[in-house]
Amino acid sequence: MSSAEKPLIGHLVIVGVGLIGGSVSLALKKAGVVGHVTGVGRNRDNLELAQRIGIVDAWTHDVGEAVRDADVVLLAVPMSAYASVFAAMAKTLPEHAVVTDAGSTKQSTIIAANKFLPGPERFIAAHPIAGTEKSGAGAAFAELYEKRLCVITPVGDSSATALALVMQLWEKTGSRVVTMDAAEHDDFLASVSHLPHLAAFALVNAVRRQKSEGHDPFCFAAGGFRDFTRIASSSPEMWRDIALSNRDALLGQLDAFQQELNGMREALLADDADRLLKEFSAAREAREAWLAKHGDGL
Amino acid sequence: MSSAEKPLIGHLVIVGVGLIGGSVSLALKKAGVVGHVTGVGRNRDNLELAQRIGIVDAWTHDVGEAVRDADVVLLAVPMSAYASVFAAMAKTLPEHAVVTDAGSTKQSTIIAANKFLPGPERFIAAHPIAGTEKSGAGAAFAELYEKRLCVITPVGDSSATALALVMQLWEKTGSRVVTMDAAEHDDFLASVSHLPHLAAFALVNAVRRQKSEGHDPFCFAAGGFRDFTRIASSSPEMWRDIALSNRDALLGQLDAFQQELNGMREALLADDADRLLKEFSAAREAREAWLAKHGDGL
User: Whole-angstrom Cα distance, residue B89 to residue B101?
Assistant: First the structure.
C-alpha cells in the first residue's frame, strides 16, 4: 500500500484476538488493505503476543474505548459473549462504522445485533468456514482463509454499503464469499457440522457408559472409531455455545438423523439385506461424490 | 525353519486370499511356522498373483479338494459365505484338522460352524482387529497384525488342543491375543465399530436427503465432516453382512446410542447449558483417556 492511497479499512478493531480474529488481521495486512489494527481482549499475555508478532498495532481491554474511532469492528469471540460485547460498544460506536463477525451460527447473531446495536443495519453477519484445532494469537496465520468458503447472511434491512465493505473484507482474506439466507445457513451447518459433533459426543458417551468390570470396550476401538470421534475432542464450551445458539436448526437435523437411524433399525429388525445395502451404497456414493468435488479444498 | 524341524502348521489352507488371509500367510511364512500354503478362491487373477508374490504355494477353486490334507484351515471370506464354505469342506476335512476364521462377528460364526462342520469343537473363532481400506492379495503384507489385538472366542465344547494351536497361530502373526466370550466380543465390537459405521452411513444419508434446489449442504462440509464420515466410504456389501450377522448386538447398541441422542435433545429443548457441557466434557475426557492409553497402536 503506498502512503498516498487510502486503505479499504482505515481502522480495524478486532474483538477477540485468537486464531480466527488474528488470522483476519494478518490476511488483511498481507493484502495491504488495512491501516491501523486495534485488538481487544481480556488476556494480557495473548494481546502482548499479538502485538509482538504484528497481528495488532495496539490493544486494550476496553471494547467501548476501542471502537470510538473504528471504521470496521470484527467480533471473533465465543457466541455466548456477543450480547455483552454489542452492549459494550453501543454508546461509542461511530455512526459510519460497520460491524461483522465470524460466528458459527447466524440467526442468533443477527437477533443479538438487533437487540443491542444502535445501527443494526450496519451489522453484516459472516461465517468463515475455516479453523484448526489450535487457538490463541500464536496460532494465527495469514493463509487460514485462503480458498475457504465464507458465508455472509445479509437481511432485508442491511445497509448496501456495509454489505459491500464486509464482502470486500472477507474476499481480501482469500475466502470464496457467498451470500445466503441466515436460516438456510444455520440448517446446513447444523446438518454437516453441528449434528456430527453432537453425534460424536453421544457415541463416545454410549461407549463410556458400557464400560464394565473386566473388559473395557475402548480396548477394541481402532482407526475407524478414532476418525469418527475426532470431533468429540473439540472444546466442550465452544460446542455448548454453538448448539444452544443454533438450537432449533440443530433439533430439526437431529430429528432427520434419528429418522435415518430408525430406518436402519427397521431394516435390521426385518433382516432386510437389500434395504441395508441400498442405504449403505447411497451414503457411500454421496460421500465419494462430495470428496471428488470438494475434497481438494479440505 | 531348518529342514529338520517340523513346522507348527504343516499344511495351511486359506479360503479367501485377500488382504486378511494373504497377510496371515505372509506373517506365518516370515515367522517360519508354516510348511505348505494352499489358497482357495474364485478369482483366478488374484490367486495367480498370490502365488507369484509368495503368499501361497499352490491354489485351487475347490474348497473340498483343498482341505483334504489340511492341518489348519483359515476362513478369510465375507461372513455371508461362511455357511457354503463350511458345507463345502464338511465331507473332506480330516479329523485332526483345526479351523479358524477372521470374521468381524463371532456368535453367528460359531452358530454356522455348529450347523455345518462335522467336528465343530475343532473350530476356534477369531477376530484379528486389523485392516486397511485396500483389498485383494496385492494389498497383503506380513506386518498387518503386528501389535494388533486378536480376539479368540472359544466355547465350552472347544477342543483344548485346537484352541492352543489357533492361539499360537495368531500369536505368530504378531497379534496380541486375548480370549473372551463371543457375546461380549459382539457387544463391544457393535459399540465401537459396527454402530459407528451405521451412524456414519445414516448421517451422510440425512445430509443427502436435505439437498435442495439452489444450495447443496455438502458445499459447507469441512474437515470434521470428512473424518466423521470416513467410514461411510467402506464397502456397503461387507457392512451389510456384518450388520446382519451381528444384528441383535447392533440393535442393542443402537438403542443405547439413541438414548444418548435423546438426552442431548432434552438438554437442547430445556436450554440446559450445564447438562450439555457436562455431557460434551465427559465424552471429550473419555476419548482423550482412550487415546492416551491406546493411541499409539492405531
Answer: 14
A224: chain B residues, CB-CB within 8 Å: 193, 196-197, 230-231, 234
Domain shared by A16 and A157, yes or no: yes
- Average pLDDT over chain B reads 94
Percentage with pLDDT > 90 across chain A: 89
- d(CA A232, CA A280) in angstroms, rounded, equals 24
Q: State whether B201 and A261 contact (CB < 8 Å).
A: no
Strands A149-152 and A126-128, by their bridges, are: antiparallel
Q: Which of A221, A263, A294 sits opposite B219 (nearest CB)?
A: A294
How far is residue B93's CA from residue B70's CA, in Å, rounded to a whole number? 7
Burial class (CB in 10 A: 0-12, 13-18, 19+), B6: exposed
Report the residue of chain A nearest B258, measured CA to CA: A258
Co-location of B193 and B293 in the same domain: yes
Neighbours of A106 (CB within 10 A): 27
Rounded Cα distance, B8 and A223, in Å: 32
> Which 251-270 residues of chain A touch chain B by CB within 8 A?
251, 253-254, 256-261, 263-265, 268-269
Q: Which amino acid is at B28?
A: L
- Choose one of B153, B180, B207: the last residue of a domain: B180
Contact call for residues B104 and B189 (beta carbons, < 8 A): yes
Domain count along chain B: 2
When pLDDT is cut at 50, 70 and 90, the band that residue A222 belongs to is confident
Tell whether A155 and A105 lie within a shared domain.
yes
The residue behind cell 447466524 is: A106
Fill in the amino acid letter for B252. Answer: G
C-alpha closest to that of B287 among A173, A204, A250: A204
Q: Are strands A126-128 and A123-124 parallel, antiparallel or unpaired?
A: unpaired
> Domain with B174 in it: what CATH number?
3.40.50.720
Q: Which of A265, A84, A294, A226 is nearest to B292 (CA)?
A: A226
SS3 state of residue A36 = strand
ipTM of the complex: 0.88
Handedness of CA B258, B260, B265, B270 (dihedral sign): positive
Instruction: Name the grid cell of A126.
Output: 459472516
Q: Please report, as a single letter, which amino acid is at residue B232.
A: A
Question: How many Å apart are CA A173 and CA A128, to the nearest integer?
Answer: 10
In tens, the pLDDT along A123-164 reads 999 999 988 778 899 999 999 999 999 999 999 999 999 999
d(CA A164, nearest CA chain B) in Å: 22
Which of B228, B244, B251, B294 should one mutate to test binding to chain A, selecting the residue with the greatest count of A CBs within 10 A?
B228
Is B35 in a helix, a strand, or coil? strand
pLDDT digits (tens, 9 = 90+) for B213-252: 667 899 899 888 999 999 999 899 999 999 999 999 999 9
Three cell numbers, residue B267: 438438554
Confidence (pLDDT) at B296? 67
Question: In this structure, what DSSP letter does residue A54 have?
Answer: T
